[in-house]
Write a structure and sequence with these properties.
Organism: Sphingobacterium bambusae
Protein name: Electron transfer flavoprotein subunit alpha/FixB family protein
Strand order of the largest sheet: 7-11-6-1-4-5-12
Pfam families: ETF, ETF_alpha
Order of helices and strands: EEEHEHEHEHEEEEEEEHEHEHEEH
Shape: globular
Keywords: Electron transport, Transport
Bound molecules: flavin-adenine dinucleotide
Oligomer: single chain
Strand content: 25-35%
Family: Belongs to the ETF alpha-subunit/FixB family.
Length: 323
């Protein structure tokens, strides 16, 4: 029996969430005494695949067929389930990323496995019964889910656990899957990148701004702050509704839920629907001119002041600190 960790890549580069999943898989393996194998699908260089050794995982199965060059949910789910069966993996671990959210239930159904999606903790293991925590009700509560099936699929919330490093040599094994034509019924014609900047769901730091910025012409300072910090940019719903920023940046109950290590909110009131998507951030910094703004109640650090004065000073201070 073993553990299979699916490691996602973007254009050949393994994602940060892949390293988190590997560390998590290694930690689960330490608990169960099982070997951990990574699975990569797509065109990823040997040098890149060798990085799995930095997270204590000694073997990677590489699937690099022309049919699977682009992510296709059904096909990738079938391949992951097929590989899991071929190595007798009782547990499959992946990130609860955009693609992971689509993959995890499919893999669980194919394997007849119990599913914990959005996991935020290591399992508490009692024989074949595992208990795992996950955030529920827009991060307002933590539920403990009990996985009773022998087989398990765990989709780990990005940024919920640190990737821990340890170095071991890596063996890479190629695998040719049987991809059914029906699994390739979705054809990706083209991928258009919305931005070259840091991806919002994966970002360690997010700089987000709201209606307090008055208009789209004032976003230059938000982008500059994000650049200095190596952060992704986000916004409140009214901002994207007004077309000041793209909808892809909208965070909250009806937008993306993010879990960065640092969330900086500028000119955002902190309405409950906004907080629903950001309150699981590790550290929250709020910049708002209204000391009564509800966002301050959930902030770790608050700056009461005019964003147009505070943000430029913050940028200058960070630049000076970096030099
Ligand atoms: P405002 O509420 O107008 O707040 C602007 C803030 O900027 C104020 O606190 C003000 O003090 C401050 N400010 C003004 N000028 C300055 C300045 N110069 N310097 C510093 N601060 C300044 N909202 C979301 O964000 N995400 C969602 O997913 C979402 N989903 C929703 C779903 C439903 C069903 C509903 C009903 C609403 C939803 N909303 C959502 C909207 C939400 O209720 C709020 O209306 C919205 O979050 C407010 O956006 P805001 O904070 O940018 O604007």
């Amino acid at each position: 029996m073993s553990i299979l960790v699916y490691i996602e890549n973007v254009e050949g580069a393994l994602k940060k969430s892949a390293f988190e999943s590997l560390s998590y898989g290694k930690a689960v393996g330490d608990l169960t005494g099982e070997k951990v194998t990574a699975l990569s699908i797509g065109n990823v260089s040997q040098e890149e695949l060798n990085k799995v050794g930095q997270y204590g995982v000694e073997k990677v199965i590489e699937v690099n067929s022309s049919d699977l060059g682009q992510f296709v949910n059904q096909a990738y789910a079938s391949v992951i389930a097929e590989v899991a069966k071929s190595i007798d993996a009782q547990t499959v671990i992946l990130s609860n990323s955009f693609s992971g959210k689509g993959l995890a239930p499919r893999i669980a159904a194919k394997l007849g496995a119990a599913l914990a999606d959005g996991a935020i903790s290591l399992p508490t293991i009692s024989g074949s019964i595992w208990q795992i925590q996950k955030s529920v009700f827009s991060n307002k509560a933590i539920a403990t889910e009990e996985l009773q099936e022998q087989k398990k699929v765990i989709a780990l919330t990005p940024n919920s656990l640190e990737a821990t490093e340890s170095a071991v040599p890596v063996a890479i094994e190629k695998y040719e899957p049987q991809v059914a034509a029906a699994d390739l019924s979705t054809v990706i014609k083209d991928i258009v990148r919305a931005t070259d900047k840091v991806s919002l769901p994966e970002a360690d730091i997010v700089v987000s701004a709201g209606r307090g910025l008055k208009g789209p012409e004032n976003w230059a300072m938000v982008e500059e702050l994000a650049d200095v910090l190596g952060a992704a940019t986000a916004c409140s719903k009214p901002v994207s509704d007004a077309g000041w920023r793209p909808h892809a940046e909208h965070v909250g109950q009806t937008g993306l839920a993010v879990t960065p290590n640092l969330y900086i909110a500028i000119g955002i009131s902190g309405a409950i629907q906004h907080l629903a998507g950001v309150s699981a951030s590790k550290t929250i910094v709020v910049i708002n001119k209204d000391p009564e703004a509800p966002f301050f109640k959930v902030a770790d650090y608050g700056i009461v002041g005019d964003a147009f004065e505070v943000v430029p000073q913050l940028i200058e201070a960070l630049k000076a600190y970096k030099n």
